[in-house]
Protein: 6-phosphogluconolactonase
Organism: Streptomyces coryli
Amino acid sequence: MTVAPQIVVHRDKDLMAQAAAARLITKIVDAQAARGFASVVLTGGRNGNGLLAALASSPARDAIDWSKLDLWWGDERFLPEGDADRNVTQAREALLDAVPLDPARVHAMPASGGSYGADADAAAAGYAAELAAAARPEDHGPVPSFDVLLLGVGPDTHVASLFPEHPGVRETERTVVGVHGAPKPPPIRVSLTLPAIRAAREVWLLAAGEDKAKAVTIALSGAGEIQAPAAGAYGRSRTLWLLDRAAAAGLPAQLYPPASA
Ligand SMILES: O=C(O)[C@H](O)[C@@H](O)[C@H](O)[C@H](O)COP(=O)(O)O
């Protein structure tokens, strides 16, 4: 039984990024207070990086104990280490290089030309093994119980690198897959699967701009996850859609919560 998604609509994408950053700071601080550490999965894309940049400039950012934060990625472009188009490169530029993280707790997905050469499927298996090694008995599964798993949403309703009707979105066993022929360049990627995404306590989906309105409406109107992967992205205890007005334009007005629209 999945919990109904919560929808919060913000005036514009900048306010969405600022509010999402504030929300994430609070979530991380609360998790660290409760368990001594926090675990967050980052996403690529403009909205994911916008959130990280907003977090970097937040006066409250150092309420987080950066040394007790585990960072994972929901997907990665399978490019050489340091390539400007890699999600980890962009995350470092937006935030990670500015805060005192424990490097051992930053789990970037493998790059092409690294330990797995040009084999994205082997890289995916390697990351799955890293996730499994980090899972604790209380996680009851092959991945850690992420406190928050962030996802951008593509105009075709893709999340991470799970694209409509592609093999990755159909995966029900593996936690990480290699992606070939991705419609969004670059074509070769590594991605968490829906079972791994759904292991998260909370899944937060970020979408801003009128080019996302159709995808948001489709994903929230009962579409199947194979045709609309975002529809299959939900957390164990919470699924939160963080939108701006433009991305929410296709939703029935009564779905909007009273605040922040
Ligand atoms: O590697 C990637 O490209 C991202 O992980 C991808 O899933 C992204 O989040 C969406 O395509 C939304 O991207 P925008 O926020 O830039 O629209």
